[in-house]
Design goal:
The chain has 476 residues and is α+β, with helices and mostly antiparallel strands. It folds into two domains: 271 residues, Bira Bifunctional Protein, Domain 2 (BirA Bifunctional Protein, domain 2, 2-Layer Sandwich); 93 residues, 3-Layer(aba) Sandwich (Rossmann fold), CATH 3.40.50.800. 35% of the residues lie in helices and 26% in strands. A hairpin with a 5-residue loop joins β22 and β23. α2 crosses α12. It holds the Pfam family tRNA-synt_2b. GO terms for molecular function: ATP binding; bis(5'-nucleosyl)-tetraphosphatase (asymmetrical) activity; glycine-tRNA ligase activity. This is Glycine--tRNA ligase. It is found in: Cytoplasm.
Length: 476
């Protein structure tokens, strides 16, 4: 349960200071558990999204992408089980009137204990959750004297279920409007479009449908910065397979998805698999890929064997036949599904936490330090910064010439203010992998100084080679 809250707080502050993440509606004191992405955050998020999308749709011949609407027919959520099952055990403190998700309350307390004691508490909780033993969960909270963070008391209500879906009205007149939901996941938009995609794309099983989109959950205690939010983005892929082959495909995607994470250069020690103790109502196997955040190991992606629950249920509720005719086996059947579901915001946080480093550069009695974001070049919000050494002698014109040559291929940033050292530090702080300085020698031999973020080494290269150097690194 090792955590580094100081580092986590430093990362949150850095995200605000350098335009990655802002509190939503901050001028009005913010909205709890809702965040906006700033100029650097929006670009980093887009780069992560694009890398996932390309790896799913462009690199797999049998996976295509869709973009389904956020609003769906309300029966969708009855069929999916969300109306009846999308609930979490909650508990209220009678003194503060503050409501907590039971697992979050117990997990928060476990983090304050030793590893052995914390793990034992989590194991007890998991067993009680598996049996839906609400009385046992309340007793566990009381026995461990787990207090409300506001009132400081252990005066708790009974544990009860609370549905996490946001509802709203569809229609102009409230009396005549029908209640619909903001989608709590993107998966159902894929399932209801299964036949549309399969027929129009002439898809043969096995095949997948991918989607990136917003989802909404009324988390009672949303915490830990952007790790758990009420409005978030998911990157999901549903892979449709022949019944009976789910074990093999589940193993395949479990391994394939971890490979994707490691392709970004992250140390394998930072990741682990966590098998679900309690399976969702639709699953026959489920595993989380967890990452070692400064707040401990937390889920980033889930791989689920969903059986034929979703398509079968939509067939039943819609009264429409949702089946696939397999020409190889000469059979009609409802396909089984393997799901890969990754939170884009969590992947963003993972990328930021993994990249953040504070470095002491002091030497010869002279103090110096820097904060650097070691993003993979393909994900960095700015990939090349271009600096004229001075604002005169034709150097800005040469720098703009290089900028014009490169900006259609990758993200560039131009700056001529302050000393070069200060400019380097600012680019280190947003994770720019390459900085190029145009100086008076450039006018003589058309060479520039390229400076590498990670090593801080500098070398002289021909100006017309800069674009190639950066592209090679991005496409590595």
């Amino acid at each position: 349960m090792a955590t580094d809250q100081n580092k986590f707080q430093a990362i949150i502050s850095h995200c605000k200071e350098y335009g990655f993440v802002f509190q939503s509606s901050e001028i009005y004191d913010g909205l709890s558990a809702v965040y906006d992405y700033g100029q650097n955050g929006a670009q980093l998020k887009k780069n992560i999204r694009d890398y996932w999308w390309k790896s799913m749709t462009q690199m797999h011949e049998n996976i295509v992408g869709i973009d389904a609407a956020i609003f769906m027919h309300p029966t969708t959520w009855k069929a999916s089980g969300h109306v009846d099952n999308f609930s979490d055990p909650m508990i209220d403190n009678k003194d503060s009137k503050k409501r907590y998700r039971v697992d979050h309350l117990i997990e928060g307390h476990a983090e304050t204990l030793s590893k052995e004691a914390g793990d034992a508490l989590i194991e007890q909780m998991d067993n009680l959750l598996k049996d839906n033993d609400f009385a046992g969960l309340k007793k566990l909270i009381e026995d461990n004297k787990i207090k409300c963070s506001v009132s400081g008391t252990v005066n708790w209500t009974d544990v009860r279920q609370f549905n996490l879906m946001f509802s709203t009205q569809l229609g102009s007149v409230t009396d005549e409007a029908s209640e619909i939901y903001l989608r709590p996941e993107t998966a159902q938009g894929i399932f209801v479009n299964f036949l549309n995609v399969q027929k129009t794309g002439r898809m043969k099983i096995p095949f997948g449908i991918a989607q990136v989109g917003k989802a909404f959950r009324n988390e009672i205690v949303a915490r830990q910065f952007i790790f758990r939010m009420r409005e978030f983005e998911q990157m999901e892929m549903q892979f449709f397979i022949r019944p009976g082959t789910q074990k093999e495909w589940y193993a395949y995607w479990k391994e394939e998805r971890l490979k994707w994470h490691l392709s970004l250069g992250t140390s394998p020690e930072k990741y682990r698999y966590h098998d679900h103790v309690k399976l969702a109502h639709y699953a026959d196997a489920a595993v989380d890929i967890e990452f070692d955040f400064p707040i401990g190991f937390k889920e980033v992606e889930g791989i689920h064997s969903r059986t034929d629950f979703d398509l079968k249920s939509h067939q039943e509720y819609s009264k429409k036949k949702i089946q696939y005719f397999d020409t190889e086996t000469n059979q009609n059947y409802i396909p089984y599904v393997i799901e890969t579901s990754i939170g884009l915001d969590r992947m963003f946080l993972l990328t930021v936490c993994n990249a953040y480093a504070e470095e002491d550069l002091s030497k010869d009695g002279k103090e110096d330090s820097r904060v650097v974001m070691r993003f993979p070049a393909k994900l960095a919000p700015v990939q090349l910064a271009i600096f004229p050494l001075t604002k005169k002698d034709g150097l800005p014109e040469l720098a703009k010439e290089l900028m014009d040559k490169c900006k259609s291929s990758f993200y560039c940033f131009y700056e001529e203010k302050d000393a070069i050292g200060k400019r380097y530090r600012r680019q280190d702080a947003i994770g720019t992998p390459f900085c190029v300085t145009i100086d008076h020698q450039t006018k003589e031999d058309n060479t520039v100084t390229i400076r590498y973020r990670d090593s801080m080494e500098q070398e002289r290269v021909p100006m017309d080679k800069v674009k190639e150097i950066v592209l090679n690194k991005i496409n590595e």
